[in-house]
Amino acid sequence: MTTTVAAPATSSGPVARAKVRRGWTQHGLLFVAPFLLIYVVFLVWPTLLGFRLSLSSVNIAGGNDHLVGFANYAEAFGDPRMWRSLWNTLVFTVLSTIPLVLLGLAFALLVHHLRFMQWLWRLSFFGPFLLPSAVVSILWLQMIYPPDYGLLNGTLGTDVLWLGDPSTAMWSVVLTTVWWTVGFNFLLYLAALQAIPHHLYEAASIDGATAWDKLRSITLPLLGRTTALIVVLQLVASLKVFDQIYLMTGGGPEDATRPIIEYAYDVGFTGYRIGYASAVSYILFVLIVIVSLAQLRLFRKREEVAS
């Protein structure tokens, strides 16, 4: 009589593989648990709490806190000052995003092709970005824009009230912002340029390509992903503008530069209407999400067409 002994289960069986997957899953959850906790506590929960506030009549000066539904949103959509501040935000976004992207690319191309003192040029273009917004605002307020002794009027031979005239105030803030923040885009473009393989340019030179041909056929297409990233980051940053405008103009003159975040700040902490201010903030939040998703989808379609 013969007996058959079952072979021991090997580590390559389906049961063993399932155990390994469960083990990896458990260990993975342990590793990401601290981040998930921080993410929920400092992002998800405040977002939900803020949305709940936008549906209430909470007032930091006191009074009853009760839910009013979407009444705050209805009031915001009928508020002309909210629409004016939203328009100012969109104008600032358009006026600042275009030069910040183009100048960042131009400066990166310039520094990338320089063969002497590159560290000085990098520091010159990126240095202002390291300054706090208060320092930048005071610098331009006290040295560049004063009508009597300012550097800008002294150079141009004019006496323009750059920050006191509604027709020039927004342009002045945009000019300051471009000088201050273009270094970040410059750095991203410079890193992307240095990652392009040099043999592509060598092969193009052998084929007789000019500098313009190399830029149009090699450099710009390979910078497509970087450009998409910079545009999205710049749009989001410009839509959230607050610091330099609040410090330089306070939203004036005649509300010509007041962005929507400053309007929400004034309504919430000057008018004490936290619920209404939260509703205004969530209108901006939805706008930022829509713009970001639309921009990413546009660039993705372009990549699909190009490929």
Automatic annotation (TrEMBL):
Subcellular location: Cell membrane
Alphabetic keyword roster: Cell membrane, Membrane, Transmembrane, Transmembrane helix, Transport
Domain ABC transmembrane type-1: 86-295
GO BP terms, alphabetized: transmembrane transport
GO CC list: plasma membrane
The organism's place on the tree of life at top rank: Bacteria
Family annotation (PROSITE patterns): ABC_TM1 (PS50928)
Protein's membrane topology: Multi-pass membrane protein
Major location (coarse): membrane
Key word Transport present: yes
Segments passing through the bilayer: 29-48, 90-111, 123-145, 169-191, 222-242, 274-294
The keyword Transport appears for this protein: yes
InterPro entries documented for this protein: ABC_transporter_permease (IPR051393), MetI-like (IPR000515), MetI-like_sf (IPR035906)
Family assignment from sequence similarity: Belongs to the binding-protein-dependent transport system permease family.
Protein name: Sugar ABC transporter permease
